[in-house]
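Let us work through a complete example step by step.
Step 1: write down the sequence.
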Amino acid sequence: LPRFDQTKLIMSDARSEEIRKQRELQQRATINQRLIESGEKDRLKDLLRAKLVAVGWRDEMKTYCRELIKQKGIDNVTVEELVAEISQKGRGKVPDHVRAEILTKIRKYLATVSTTPK
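Step 2: predict the structure and record it as C-alpha cells.
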C-alpha cells in the first residue's frame, strides 16, 4: 500500500478501536445501572463477601495488610498506599471458583433482564 493509504488505514483502525471502547464503557454503565436499580448489585456483593470470608480470603488480606504496616511502619504508610497494594493483591487472590460463580450469576441476571420487556 502507498504510504498515504497505510496512514489512513492506521487512523481508521484507531478510530474503530476508540468507538469500540466507548460502546463497551456505555454497555458497562448500563449494566451497572440495571444491577443497582434492581438491587441485584447489593445481593451479588453480599454473596461475594460471604464467599470470600468462607474461603479465608478476608483473613489473608488482613494479615497481608498487617505485614505491610509492620514492614513500612505505621507512620510511614497511608491508607491510600494500603488500598492500592491490597486491591492489586486482593483481585489476584480471589479463587477462580468464586469468580466463576459470581460471573455466572451476573450472566444469568443479564439474560433474564434482556428477555424481560421494559
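Step 3: interpret the result. The helical segments are 3-38, 40-54, 57-72, 79-93, 96-115.
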